[in-house]
Amino acid sequence: MGNRFDPALHKYYINEIEVPHITGLLPKQEKYVSDEKYEAARKRGEDNHSMIKLFLDTGDIYNDPMLFALDIMLKDHPEFGKVILYEQPLFSKRYMFGGKPDVIFENAKIDFKLNFNNKYYHSLQLAAQEILTMENNISPDTENWFIAYYQNSKFKLKPVYNPEAKKMFLKLVDKYYIDQSINKFLKGEIDG
Question: Quick check: is 25 in a domain?
Fold first, then answer.
């Protein structure tokens, strides 16, 4: 028994026990667009992630303006260090959750978005990635957490590090498991 990620269902398992994923633990954000526009944006985000993964796999920009801008951004930030991993499922046995960081560098963590919204919300996501990479001995503790988004033919980087974010994310993990226990109790699945 070990860790397993089911990409078709986007589910994470630790020793065959389904565990929550980062996005599922975060508070739901308000949608200010129609369901159709939201779905189109979600699909565009998936497509962008696929293109970024292809670039990281091959180093080729495929004559794509977004990948050209990404290549420039990365060359402008040698302080990030080498790419350690990207789009790889990670698991926390200690806290019982999983997630798939976008890109982990030697000295930075970057999550790619279509735009920049709430710095505090984004910091929770990067805090979770920090927990995963530290528990799995992938990268050291760093304050270099960034959201990267492509706008006007450039990638923009917004720092989102917050020293309270890891504690807040772990409270979300605790809340998830408390809610699970209460639901089991109310269904009669837990009896003293």
Answer: no
Tens digits of residue pLDDT in 75-103:
999 999 999 999 999 999 999 999 999 99
Beta carbons within 10 angstroms of residue 63's beta carbon: 7
Total count of domains within the chain: 1
CB 157 within 8 A of CB 147: yes
Residue 61: partners with Cβ closer than 8 Å, 6 or more residues away: 55, 67, 68, 70, 71
Per-residue pLDDT tens over the stretch 18-69: 999 999 999 988 777 788 888 888 899 899 999 999 999 999 999 999 999 9
| Domain-embedded: residue 17 | no
Asked if 127 and 165 touch (Cβ cutoff 8 Å), the reply is yes
Find the domain containing 66 and state its range: 34-186
Asked if residue 132 lies in contact with residue 95, where contact means CB atoms within 8 angstroms, the answer is no
CB contact at 8 A, 83 and 56: yes
Assigned domain for 15 exists: no
| Tokens standing for residue 111 | 């999550």
Task: List, in order, residues 6 or more apart from 27 with CB less than 8 Å away.
Answer: 121, 172
Condensed to tens digits (0 to 9), the pLDDT of residues 108-121 reads: 999 999 999 899 99
